[in-house]
Amino acid sequence: MPYSAEDKRRTIVRLRRIKGQTEALERAVEEGVDCSALLQQIAALRGAANGLMAEILQTHLMELFGSTGEPRRSLEPSDSDAEIESLMKTLRTYLK
Description:
mainly alpha
């Protein structure tokens, strides 16, 4: 879970963006928009949800395995922090 005020704010912004995309998709379905446009909107929605999931997953991993046991934004990460960053870089490529 995001703990800092800035992390919470970013998470809420992402959730509101996803909510807006979902509402736009619902309107498009009700209006009978072409399938290719719907698929494009669904892909954007999926990307937004995956981005949120990656951010929350990174926070969770830092809490579990990070050097301080809480999310950090230090200039000198520990070995475990660097490994988490590397893992997240790989996971983000799969979540796109």
